[in-house]
Write a structure and sequence with these properties.
The chain is of the alpha/beta class and about 350 residues long. About 40% of the residues lie in helices and about 15% in strands. It binds flavin mononucleotide.
């Protein structure tokens, strides 16, 4: 029995947000296990001029204020993404705003970008960056609820935080900020991406971090085509696919299934993998994709890679399976890759399209 099998059920007695706050506290106090092993060389991958010792990352939303980068990398993740960070601190939506759908191995959240703002994040990131990091660090940007011109917020976030980021994400896909997902429309997207690219170039020139766009699963075929066209036209560096869904599949069993917000975890796997598959096809495999949504096993991680993901992320499964899941997924993923005769994870990317 691992320690999570003892502590996990106790943490789950707390309501979901208290459990999260307690978990962050433990991580900050150094009470989490260090599980980082030397990764199997088959898992090593590199692009954007960055080396990833393995392709599995922690998705945005867990470490909104960039407080636990090192402890999360120590769990074995190859990379971690902090945020979403907005220019100004904001409290987010009234509580309760996270729900465990235990029977469905899912989560619904309507946090609403609660975070301490970019100045606080910059301080934490500067501390984190003082020594070399054992992994890659992404910084995910959001907009404040009351900001009228979204571009201003993304530009401010990019300007203030780019020097700490190995890659940056513009998140236009959270369902919990009114109007945010409308930024996925073609015209809006073009303006947004061009604007942030310009800011990054002005700040850091050639050394600017790669820019990634995070999209929702609830998009039409036309949206997919538009996003792919804009991504190719503007030489976007990556797409993260996907955020949480506003759909509620009819098979959900939990009493919380009708709560408002974004659904993540197991019920999101099929939908998000389909969007990933489609976006790989539409972008002709030319843009690195980060596959996220419902991963809780090595087999699912492998499916995302074969559908077109260069990197993968998870969040909700950690709620149910805890830290041991990270090393379990990596071990199983290496086995699947070797069984199929791959020498490296990059050879398997998009295999389902060939
Ligand atoms: C409680 C919670 C908060 C989240 N907050 C953010 C966020 O601030 N920014 C973001 O881009 N995604 C956020 N996400 C979405 C995750 O990054 C991820 O895209 C989604 O949960 C699907 O992955 P999963 O099924 O492995 O959880 C959040 C997810 C959860 C469960």
């Amino acid at each position: 029995m691992n320690s999570f099998q003892i502590v996990g059920p106790m943490i789950r007695l707390l309501d979901a947000e208290k459990a999260h706050t307690f978990t962050l506290w433990c991580l900050k106090k150094g009470l989490a296990p260090s599980q980082k092993q030397i990764d199997d060389p088959v898992l090593k991958t590199s692009f954007w001029g960055r080396e990833f010792s393995n392709p599995l990352g922690l998705a945005a939303g867990f470490d909104k204020n960039a407080e636990v980068v090192r402890p999360m990398l120590a769990l074995g993740f190859g990379f971690t993404e902090v945020g979403s960070i907005t220019p100004l601190a904001q409290p987010g939506n009234p509580k309760p705003r996270i729900f465990r759908l235990t029977e469905d191995k899912a989560v619904i959240n309507r946090m609403g970008f609660n975070n301490e703002g970019m100045e606080s994040a910059a301080k934490n990131l500067a501390d984190t960056r003082r020594d070399r990091l054992n992994g890659v660090l992404g910084v995910n940007l959001g907009k404040n609820k009351d900001t009228a011109v979204a571009l201003d917020d993304y530009k401010q976030g990019a300007k203030q935080l780019c020097r700490y980021a190995d890659y940056m994400v513009i998140n236009v896909s959270s369902p919990n900020t009114p109007g945010l997902r409308a930024l996925q429309d073609r015209k809006e997207l073009e303006v947004l991406i061009k604007g942030v690219q310009l800011t990054l170039r002005e700040e850091m020139g050639e050394k600017a971090p790669p820019l990634v766009l995070k999209i929702a699963p609830d998009i039409t075929e036309q949206d997919k085509e538009d996003i792919a066209a804009v991504a190719l036209e503007l030489s976007l560096d990556g797409l993260t696919i996907t955020n949480t869904t506003i759909e509620r599949p009819s098979h959900l069993r939990s009493v919380h299934r009708s709560e408002g917000g974004g659904l993540s975890g197991a019920p999101l796997f099929e939908t998000s993998t389909k969007v990933l598959f489609d976006m790989y096809r539409l972008t002709e495999g030319k843009i690195p994709l980060i596959g996220v949504g419902g991963i809780s096993s090595g087999e699912q991680a492998y499916k995302k890679i074969k559908a077109g993901a260069s990197l993968i992320q998870l969040y909700s499964a950690l709620v149910y399976y805890g830290p041991p899941l990270v090393t379990q997924i990596l071990e199983d993923l290496s086995c699947f890759l070797k069984q199929d005769g791959y020498n490296s994870v990059s050879e398997a990317i998009g295999a389902d399209h060939r």
